[in-house]
Design goal:
heterodimer; A: alpha/beta; B: globular; P-loop_NTPase (chain A); Dynamin family protein (chain A); Dynamin_N (chain A)
Amino acid sequence: MTAPAWLEVLNETLDACRTHGRADLAERLRRRRDAPEGQIRLGVLGFPKQGKGYLLNAVLNAPVCAVGDAPTPEVPTEIGYAPEPAATLVGRSRERTPVAVERLTSELGARPAGTLSRVEVGVPRELLSAGLVLVDTPPVGDPRSPRTAAALDLLAEADAVILVSDATAPLSAAELALARHVRTWCPHVVLALTKIDASPGWRAVAERNRGMLAEAGIDAPVLPVSAVVREAAAKAGDAELNARSGFPELLTWIAEQAARPPEQSRALLAAVGVRAAAAELVESLRDRVDAAGQDAGLGQAALLQRAQRRADDLRRRNTRWQNLLSDEITDLMGDVEYDLRERTRKIVNTIDQTFDEGDPVKVWEEFAVWLDEALTEAVETNYSWLAERAQWVAQAVAACFGAQYDQALPDLPLDGSGAEDLDDVRRPKIEKFKIGHQAFTGLRGSYGGVLMFGLITSLPWLGLQLINPISLGAGAAFAVKTIRDEGGMRLQRRQAVAKQAAQRHVDDVFLRYSKEFRDAIRGVQRRLRDHFTGLAEDLADELTRERETIMAGSAERERRTGHIRKEIDRLAGLHQRAGELGTIAGRKRRELSA
Amino acid sequence: MTQDVRDLLHAAAGLYRDDPRASAVLHDCLDRLEQPLRVAFAGAPSSGKTTLAAALGEWPTRALRDLVLLDDPGPADDLPDATVRLVRHLEPDELAAAHPPGGSAFARQSAVNSVLVLARADEVGAGRIDALLTAKQLARRAWREDPLCTGFLGVIAVAGQLAYGGRSLRDDEFDLLAAFAAVPREELERHVLSVDSFTDPAFPGPIPVETRRSLVVRFGLFGVRLALTLIRTGCDDRVKLSAELVRRSGLGELRDTLAGCFVARAEALKARTAIIRLEALLAAQPRPGGDRLVSRVERFAAAAHDFRELRLIADIRGGRTALSGEPAEEAVRLLGAQGTAPADRLGLEPDADPGDIYDAGLDALRRWRHEAERPDRPHAERTAAHVVVRSAEGLLALFA
């Protein structure tokens, strides 16, 4: 025997439900598939106090269900055929406890909540003898309550549903929503309008309900009934009164449900179940696609935009810091050279003055010491100023990177000036150089003070004003003896030789040292360039990675969304196939009944 | 109490002198203190608010004279002083929806201003003749057992339609009903089985269908059946029938609760409304210097004894305390459930000798002080006794 077409469609939908994390829907379809054959289950659903119990008792002509102020059970009651009245409590783990029918209500009240899964009642009624099972459910209410869930659980197995709403008021919005939900899962639904005996306006309410159901596209007849009238009719054996109770129509409807050929009925139920599950699944998948789309639409664009802004920013910063570094290094080079030249010029001036008036023979020793000290000091001062300026350049360039620069500045190659390695000034060959012959007579005052050489940088906003004191005072603190006893050519020649020797030494030092500081500055430039280029590259890499991540994320989302879309299409296909199967099943039924 | 609130409102008016809207609110609060208590009827559509308000509103008694009944509360700032909340069934969903919203700590702690009404009590139990009794039992049980009913001063089953019909019963209606009642019961039985059978053209007698229809629309099928039964069992004139219908409708119980819990506490409830509005204003528009006023409001709220009395009355009557029987009755009386005058509290005649009142008060104070200090009683019980002691002290203070 080949599997029926509906089974294939149902299984496929069931798998899809499971795949997409809707175990609840899968379970419903599974129960629909595995429903026991030879049983027609007719569920009774409704909000509290609508007269469900009265209705069922009136259908069965027996007080089976709890009515009035008796507490309604939290679990469904299944009423089937039995030759003798019987009741069984079915526990959570399927254990069965038979109880006497008349003690059922008190037994139910004595059970703690949550220990039962259902109640089974058997009654000797002709109506039920062909395998019809009436299922009384807990009242529907708060959608989150377990009671509501237990009631709606019925829809997994019900072949038909009686919705119960009383005639004191038209269907509420919640009742209409319930009707829509029930009709989606179950093809055969009737609305029993109860309590028409006590409601003067029940005809208007019935009309209003019919209109509302039609408007909502819910195909369900409305049957007004009165359990009170039915009971009175039964007591009096009054057929005419019974007809007025509205129950004959309802019973006819119930009998129709029971008489439906089982195979067609199963096919139709399976088709309806597949359609409902597919629709619900598609809805939840659509929600996911929408959510992903929103996520992508809003989040990704913003992220990309931010990354783009940061890249542009980085480009601007790159240009700025490179320009700044090269400008600053050029300036530094010039400034340092100027500073050194200025310092040496002053020394040379002192040399000139010293030997214009002094006799080298008398002053050389002392002069040589002074000259060394003066040169060392000049070089050292110049160098330390250079080091400070280089540090400042590093900071200025770092500032170009703004808040993103959170690293330590690089160590610059400026540990020492090398001034201690300068050669001592060599003593020139001076004729008749008589040491100590003449004593210092006093201090020449021209360099007795402190010479201030200030270089004010061009960047005052950094607060980095460099004032470089060049103290030549100590160096000039030797006396120039006025020459009286010796004059003429010899003295002048001695003076010229000494001047020349001293000046050449200064020139040597200047040349040597200016090479040194140029190298140092170039070293600084190279070090800073490498450091900041590396930093800029790191930042650029980071941005690239970020953009890649964003792009990859969107591609992944795109892929997932595409997958979901494909799933939606697949489910739509299943939905359609189920619809065709349902139509076939429905047509067969009509042909048979015709 | 009212004077304290007036002082607070005047102080606040000074604080918000330059704010016309706040000033208007504060002046409205002051005006309301002089006006009758405003009681709102709240509930889902078609729960019978209008019918019940009408039935109560035309009540010609002194007890409810100083009451304005608001059919369905208006906007939020038109805060009612007390609420009658109607539900159609005592079902968890409906009860949960009937719970008044929170508010400030004071508003919640003093939320002793609503009564729950199981309206349409005649529909309980498929409209059988004992529907009203069943409904009353259900209401009592819900009040005692259902945690969702804790906050209410009472849960009362009322058949609004019956009450209104009974209150406004006309002579011609009585005559009609009496004529029907004269038909032998067995013969009439099937004609009052349903609205349809009652308005059926085959109904015996010359009464036109339309007349019968208007009767059943006004009283409900249950009302008609009850009236017929009552006429047969002795309510043989309009006044008697009217009184009996109203008595059975539960309207009297509702009226007594409103009189005892609302009207007798009108000053406290109006003060409460004013304080809640003042609190809201102080919170919404804080002002420098408002802190002092806020702490004054807090002190007032903490000291307000009336709300503790009302809550304890509700707890004792709802069976939520260990008190029962004679002591419980004495406690609710001392707490002012039957009137807040000293004689009412002590269960003496209104014209009792002041000396007797004083002695009785002193006696009550001694006994309840003893109860409040018994170490063998649970804490909750002693706390309850303390509230009674405070009430007794209050009534004695009037003699100082």
